[in-house]
Amino acid sequence: MQTASGNFDLIEILTDDNYLEPFDIPKEIPEDVKKVYPYIKLCSKNPYISVIGSFSVGKSSFVNTLSGKEIVPYDTSKTTSVPMLIAKDDDRIIINTFFSKIVNLKIDYLDSIIDQVRHNPDIDYRRYIEFIVLNYKGFPYENTTFVDTPGYSGGDEDYKISKSMIDISDAVIFLFDASKGSLTDEDLYILEYAKSQKADIFVVANKIDKVWWEDRQEILDLAKKSLKNRNIDVGRNICYFSNDSNYEKQINLEFKLIKSFITAASQKEYFKLVEWSAEYWYKKGTALFNLERYSEALQCYDKAIQLEPDKGLYWANKGVALGNLSRYSEALQCYDKAIQLEPDNAMYWFSKGLVLFDLKRYNEVLQCYDKAIQLEPDNAEYWNMKGRALHYLSRYNEAKKCKQKAEELGYNG
Description:
Blueprint: H1 10-14, E1 20-22, H2 31-34, H3 37-42, E2 48-53, H4 59-67, E3 84-88, E4 92-97, E5 101-105, H5 110-119, E6 129-136, E7 145-148, H6 156-167, E8 171-177, H7 185-196, E9 200-206, H8 216-229, E10 238-240, H9 248-266, H10 278-290, H11 294-307, H12 312-324, H13 328-341, H14 346-358, H15 362-375, H16 380-392, H17 396-408
Parallel strand pairs: 2-7, 2-8, 3-6, 8-9, 9-10
Antiparallel strand pairs: 1-5, 3-7, 4-5, 4-6
Helix pairs in contact: 10-11, 11-12, 12-13, 12-14, 13-14, 14-15, 15-16, 16-17
């Protein structure tokens, strides 16, 4: 994607409707969900791990080491001015703006985006961009979303962003610069906030190659003491780290501790964003439905619909649950809503027909099955059920033809 001059221009893209796509937050969803809705919809629905630390502490290079490849560009400049969410998915970039728009870009444009943010200090991109999602097929952590956060440097806005990412994170990997001593008051302030938000914490003394190797344990001991004084218990979740290849052997064992921490976080079945995920409630409802616990399933489908009211599948499954509870009128209303949202979904028409069949409204049943067959003419079950409806209407010749068609298509019932 290039401008007329042949150069990638981030500001032009952010202001050109040819590139922007609308991203509307449904009015029906609860107010407390609206602030996290973009994170749920635009990034993977997994536990979040935020990498937090002060300016130029080495967060981006640390994320690259975790990933085993250079995912995030970095140098000594302040390279991350907005949060970058990293997840396993098809290679692409999604930019979420503060004016209810998104931009989808090829992953190849990441270097250009970072370069423009880095070399345009007069432009505060945080006024326009809420966060950037980096999706990589080769990202090694399938069930985890990492957040590379802007480094704080004493400004209220920097703290605000770090804290907002902690709010949605289940775990925090906190980096401090070992070459500058131990944890600062600013560091401890952020760590106290992470503790208050019930995030699991791992503390990393980064750039250990910049200090005498024999001093590494003293640095860790000082950090542990500072944490204890602030009543921040991290247990064994603290280690030193360096990207210097000369320290590779020594760092390897320490790094295993970090990976174990990540694995534990990624395996959480219950995480902060889970209750705000419509897909979670849908899956839970389906599990309960399969156990024939229809009333409980219905509650879950209601929650899914509350969070994502424009999903036909959720309305249809609610209809199935209501049908199994013999609440047929309500079930029909749900199918009508599902059909309104996705009129070309044959299964919704067929499912509505099943409810009408239970109500012995056979002429209406035929209308539904005819529509389902129009959409999926090779579905044997649809022809079979149409034959049954015709039989109940004493239209035996037509019923026989439908039965024959169903058998030709493989129906063995």
